[in-house]
UniProtKB/TrEMBL annotation:
InterPro entries: PhiA_domain. Residues 1-18 form the signal peptide. The keyword Signal applies. This is Cell wall protein PhiA. Keywords: Signal.
């Protein structure tokens, strides 16, 4: 018993050492049947997370016109990049932010009410923030939809015209494209 436990411990340590240093990356797709956002990929542009954006104009090592690639680390959500710039998703559930999701580049300035941790992937493979699902509102740049964390008391934040609940399905990406997304 003791011996096999020691072997198991060694094996676990070995696999941890052998594990690739690359994070487990994924893209995200909106699921809301019979709506304009069904199957829309999540994009990242101008410090916003968007759906139905034609071109995110990111600086990438490869083609990544409208799909952003993410990874989770310690319940924080990051945009994948091999570069020196560090881009991290925040949620602003303050009265002003109303559930707004965006990203920070290099964490230069972090307002006190911005939340960075609380992201998780549920058993269906859907991303949520502290158990809250995400939703999207029309009227963002280039006719895209902006992505928010649902605050039940505020279903149409910032007077957005049309808002829809959705599932945010993760799609594992084996060979991620490194990008620096626009600020
Ligand atoms: C991307 O670039 C095109 C062409 O310059 C521009 O029309 C469009 O508004 C840009 N979109 C974003 C999200 O930056
Ligand atoms: C996360 O969710 C739990 C349960 O709904 C809640 O009690 C807690 O306050 C939430 N935490 C944050 C930081 O919102």
């Amino acid at each position: 018993m003791k011996f096999s436990a020691a072997i198991a411990t060694l094996a676990a340590a070995g696999s941890a050492l052998a594990a690739p240093s690359e994070p487990e990356t994924f893209d995200l797709m909106a699921l809301r049947s019979a709506s304009p956002i069904h199957f829309a990929p999540f994009s990242a542009a101008k410090s916003n997370i968007l759906l139905n954006l034609k071109h995110q104009n990111a600086t990438c090592e490869g083609d990544n016109y409208n799909r952003a690639t993410f990874y989770l680390k310690d319940s924080g959500l990051f945009l994948y990049s091999k570069g020196v710039k560090h881009q991290r998703i925040f949620v602003d559930r303050s009265g002003m932010g109303q559930g707004k999701i965006g990203y920070l580049t290099d964490n230069t300035y972090l307002p006190r009410h911005f939340e960075l941790k609380g992201w998780a992937i549920d058993k269906n493979g859907d991303l949520n923030f502290n158990g809250s699902s995400l939703f999207a509102c029309s009227g963002a740049i280039d006719d895209a939809w902006s992505v928010w964390v649902l605050i039940p008391s505020n279903p149409t934040p910032a007077r957005n015209e049309e808002c829809l609940g959705m599932s945010s399905r993760t799609i594992p990406i084996k060979k991620p494209v490194s990008c620096e997304y626009s600020q």
